[in-house]
Amino acid sequence: MMTMFKKTLLGAVIAAASVAGSANAYEIGQNNDFGVEVYGVAAISWVHYDIDKKNETTGVKTDGTTGYDYENESRIGFRAGKEMFDNLEVFMQVESGYVGEDGKGSTFGGRDTFVGLGGDWGKVRFGRMLTPMYELIDWPYANPGLGASWDWGGDVKFNYDRKGDMARYDSPAFGDFSFSLATGRGDTATDGSNFHGASAHYRLADVVTFHAGLETGEKYAGSDADTFGYLVGFEASLPAGFGISGAWKSGESEEGGKTASQDSYSLIGQYWNGPWGVKLGYTANLESDIDGAKQDDADSIVSGQVMYVHNGFVPYVRIANRDIRGLDGTDMVQSDIFVVRVGIEYGF
């Protein structure tokens, strides 16, 4: 009987503690009148790489298949905001990185994480986010599966992608026109390492949208390089479910009295018939140039994707061929990579 009493008493104490804890948590929530949103993406894909390499100095070929991999690009974030004064809202966002295979890339705050102020005059944000130019590079010109060349595969580095220590202003829409401005630190450990960027967008007749972006950097990524890059592009909605987008980007890096430059382009066509969509994309990095000398390092990707949209879910199949050239040590190596990817995404 005493044992039963002790168990009952222990249960009552645990239940009371649980209720007290819940009450406190509820009280904290009640006192916080910020509007809070939890959002994220559930995304995973099975991917197979078939890789052939050729050392263009020795002519030696290497045939090999890496097998398959599961790439987990799931992530989660939180947004909150509240009006501080009339026409002045304070808002914030914290977003994790991709989960990856073992969670190492999922640092909380690894993606766009900032505090900002907004109103009908636009919004200004401080923290970690995409630069205005890279925001255009990444969308709409990198999908489907063109990023390994278009986004980050260039041989001349002249722009950042997602960057901390940034202040960014995004204008409201002035009719069909809007723009963004940003500035920030390149490498906080290097004196004078800074970057500055801008983008502009103009929609014409609800059919074509034109985009432009530029970015400059001093002591890029902690080096002694001064950089400059720009992008011009468009996206158009055509009749009968067709669409097309294309962009040209160019950049240069000057260091130690030498100037390196490289041009790239991306072209994407798509077709939608109800929930079914097809995309076909091609991108190329042209040969880079160092003080007028071509470097024989051009590369390209052609990629196609079929997808289906239902109730917010997007299953897809993507096939791509990457012809990638670059230095491996002191030798130029060409890699032909055939990629098959099957995945599903859901945004919430």
Can you describe what's shown?
This protein is mainly β and 348 residues long. The protein has a single domain, classed as Porin. Helices cover 12% and strands 59% of the residues. The protein contains three helices and 19 strands. The chain has helices at residues 2-31, 132-138, 147-150, and strands at residues 35-55, 61-72, 75-85, 88-95, 113-119, 122-130, 162-170, 177-185, 194-204, 208-218, 226-237, 242-255, 258-273, 276-285, 289-290, 293-294, 299-308, 313-328, 331-347. It has a 16-stranded antiparallel beta barrel with strand order 1-3-4-5-6-7-8-9-10-11-12-13-14-17-18-19. It is globular, with a radius of gyration of 25 Å. It starts with a helix and ends with a strand. The model is unreliable at 1-28 (pLDDT under 50).
Write the layout of secondary structure elements.
Blueprint lengths: L1 H30 L3 E21 L5 E12 L2 E11 L2 E8 L17 E7 L2 E9 L1 H7 L8 H4 L11 E9 L6 E9 L8 E11 L3 E11 L7 E12 L4 E14 L2 E16 L2 E10 L3 E2 L2 E2 L4 E10 L4 E16 L2 E17 L1
Antiparallel strand pairs: 1-2, 1-3, 1-19, 3-4, 4-5, 5-6, 6-7, 7-8, 8-9, 9-10, 10-11, 11-12, 12-13, 13-14, 13-15, 14-17, 15-16, 17-18, 18-19
Portion of residues in helices? 10-25%
Largest sheet: 16 strands, antiparallel, barrel
- Contiguous low-pLDDT stretches (5 residues minimum) are 1-28
Assigned CATH superfamily: Porin
Total count of domains: 1
- The fold-level CATH name is Porin
What's the quick description here?
12% of the residues lie in helices and 59% in strands. By secondary structure, the protein is mostly beta strands.
